[in-house]
Amino acid sequence: MKLQNKYRGIVIPAVTPLTDKFELDKVAVERMFANFAQNQVSAFILGTTGEYASLPFNVKTDYIKQAGRLKAAGQMLYAGISSNSYPETVDLAKFSLDNGADALVVNLPAYYKLSESQIMEYFEQLIKDCQGPLIIYNIPATTHMSIPLRLIDELSRHEHVVATKDSERNDERLKQALELWAGREDFSYFLGWAARSATALVNGADGLVPSSGNLHPGLYRDMYQAFLSGDHDKVHEMQAQSDLIGNLYQQGRTLGESLWALKVLMQEEGLCQPNVMPPLQPQSAEHETALREGLQQLMAQERFVF
Question: For the chain, what is the mean pLDDT?
Answer without folding.
Answer: 96
